[in-house]
Amino acid sequence: MNARVAAYLSDMPAATRARIDDGQLSLPLAWLSEQDMLRELRSRGVDDVRSVHFRANRSSLISISADRGRLNLHECFRAGGPDLLDAIAAFARARSATVPYRQAIARMRRWHAAQAEGDRPATGGRPAACCGTPAQLQALAHRYRQLNRACFGGNLPELLPVRLSDRMRRRLGHVQYGGGTGDRTVLEIALNVDLLLAGNERALRDTLLHEMAHAEAWLRHSQRGHGRIWQRIAARVGCDARACSAMRFHRRRRGTPPTEAVPRQLPAGTV
């Protein structure tokens, strides 16, 4: 067992680990070998594929041979979750130009785009870069405390770093989790700096609430992702209870520096 898989398993409840050891559950995708991937595809009804090959290339995310026996995958697909595995299996089963084929490719492209952003710091590595000015970070810390009191009953950490990133392309924000079972922490909330552009006030509030809901789901319920627990929290605090919001927001032109605009202070008692 490699170090990445061992770290992944260490965060699981003991009962879940026991079921994996007994073969009752498939190992969640942590860092799969080619044989691991082939086994996962078999469990999803993919019988034609005889071999899987991971490649670190930029030109193709996934391809399948004419006889459908060889599946080539980008390296990033070693690390994902059941939804990504389902998409890969759907691709391998479907014929080209069909609706399931196009839907599977769209899901895999979204995963690849999220990995390619490279904004999340590696485990144990240096924190990712922050492009915010002191005035911006102070204003965001104040807004976080306001929302914590008004929408979360003050139950989230009082001092949680809120970082601004100019490396996010599609994503509006994310939470960096820390710790494991029984010792959970949230290392930071990172926001797309373009949320501070004029006209994005609603998107800024919604995104901050969205990420704070992730923090509560992890700290109180040991849940990541956009499952039912997160959806209930998001609905309670008043943000869009969907993984990917359809909300429009203004973006700066490519090549232009990040905005130094500071979010305006809201009157006491309002959020």
Short description:
Helices cover 39% and strands 13% of the residues.
How does the SSE layout of this entry go?
Layout: H1 3-10, H2 14-21, H3 34-43, E1 51-55, E2 62-64, E3 70-74, H4 82-93, H5 99-116, H6 134-152, E4 162-165, E5 173-180, E6 183-192, H7 201-221, H8 228-237
Parallel strand pairs: 1-3, 4-6
Antiparallel strand pairs: 2-3, 5-6
Helix pairs in contact: 4-5, 6-7, 7-8
Spatial order of strands in the largest sheet: 1-3-2
The tally of strands reads: 6
Shape: elongated
Here the CATH topology of the domain at 134-237 equals Zincin-like
CATH architecture of the domain at 134-237, please?
A: 2-Layer Sandwich
Q: What's the CATH H-level superfamily name of the domain at 134-237?
A: Metalloproteases ("zincins"), catalytic domain
CATH class descriptor name of the domain at 134-237: Alpha Beta
Structural class: alpha/beta
Provide the residue-averaged pLDDT.
81
Main sheet: strands, sense, barrel: 3 strands, mixed
Radius of gyration equals: 21 Å
Count helical runs: 8
Helix content: 25-40%
Query: Order of helices and strands, N to C?
Result: HHHEEEHHHEEEHH
The N- and C-terminal alpha carbons lie at a distance of 48 Å
Beta content comes to 5-15%
